[in-house]
Every structure is written in C-alpha cells, then in structure tokens.
Amino acid sequence: MRWFLDHTDQIWQLTGQHAVLAVLPLLIGLLIALPLGGLARARRSLYSPVVVTAGLLYTIPSLALFILMPLVLGTGILDPANVVAALSVYTVALLVRTVADALATVPADVTSAARAMGIGRLRRFLTVDLPLATPAISAGVRVAAVSNVSIVSVAALIGVPQLGSLFTDGFNRSFVTEIVVGILACVLLAVLLDAVIVVLTRLVTPWQRTRPGCAS
C-alpha cells in the first residue's frame, strides 16, 4: 500500500498512456472495419475472402507484430505509433466479421422501404443500416476494447511505457506488489472502457430503451 501511495503519479501517467494506446487503435480499426464489413455484406462473393483474411490477421503474434511495424512504418522501435498500428490491425481483424454480421440483422423490409424512398446506398448505410446494427457492432467493440487493453501490455517488452511496464519492472525486481497494481489497473481500465462503450451505445440508440407497452 505504501508503494502505491508513493507512486500514484507514475501509475496515473502509465494508465493514461495505456488508455491512449488502447483506445486510439479501437477508433482507427472501427473506421476501417465499417466499410470492409459493409462491403462483405453488400457483396456475398466477398464475404468469405474479406472475413477470413481479416481473421487471419489476428493470428499474428503481438510481439512479432510490434517488432515488424518499425520496418513497415519506418519508425523507431520505441515509437508508440508501432503499437497503435499493430493494435489497429487486430481491431480490424476482430470487427470486420462483427460489422458484416451485424448489418445482416437489419430487417430486409426496412432496407427495402429506404430504397423505395429513393435513399442512396451510402446514405442508407449511414442513416438506416448502421444505426440499426449499432447494438450488435457495440458488442464486438467491447470485446476489441478489452482485448486491446490486454495486448498493449506486451509492448512493455520492447520498452514502450504503459501499465505493462509495471509487470516487467516488478518481475525484474521480484516485487509482487508492483505486478499486482499493474494487473488491477489494467482490469479497472478495461471495465471503464467497457462501461463507456455501453453508455455511448445507449445514447446513440435511444429506441433500444423503449419498452413495449410504455408508449401512450
């Protein structure tokens, strides 16, 4: 407990760095996965190639990908951009199938009605299909968020500072308290991100809160 109180500033700083490295790839990956998932849904012949290829990206070991990114991006080994890029790849891998399958849950009669009203494909995707698919997509985003919080910790092995640094430092010094604090901080951060996603989903899908029989 004394160690925790003496290092609160450091823990907060590492938590902030960890949050940025987990959330930024989540946003980037989602922006990439939305059109890819939409394409896979719109053209059935592309569903399997797109979804399978995206899924294979997740099989790449995280440490190997962190080390490979500097060669691809031309960045330094300690550049946080490597972690952001690698986790964006993992996020896309997780969310492409989620987006495609979520869009498949949109009722056909709703899509047909929008088409009959003369709503173009892009506008229909943004204003009809995507909002209705949001709850299902949100479930996948929650999984990706928790996964990112976990994988970011591995970047401590290549020297990128975040909560994983508490694991490596604690292990090197055989100091269990530091490791435990790092684990608890990661868990709390994952829970917080999950809660934020749930709240945001409820805010952008107010119709989901309407209970049958409550309408006057």
From TrEMBL:
Domain ABC transmembrane type-1, chain residue ranges per copy: 15-201
Task: Write down the membrane topology.
Answer: Multi-pass membrane protein
Q: Name one GO cellular component term.
A: plasma membrane
Keywords from UniProt, A to Z, are:
Membrane, Transmembrane, Transmembrane helix, Transport
Q: Which Gene3D superfamilies match?
A: MetI-like (1.10.3720.10)
GO biological process terms, semicolon-separated: glycine betaine transport; transmembrane transport
Transmembrane regions: 20-39, 46-69, 132-159, 179-201
- Residues making up the signal peptide according to the UniProt record: none
Cellular location of this protein?
Cell membrane; Membrane
Please give the name of this protein: Osmoprotectant uptake system permease protein yehY
The organism named in the record is Acidipropionibacterium jensenii
Tell me what gene encodes this: yehY
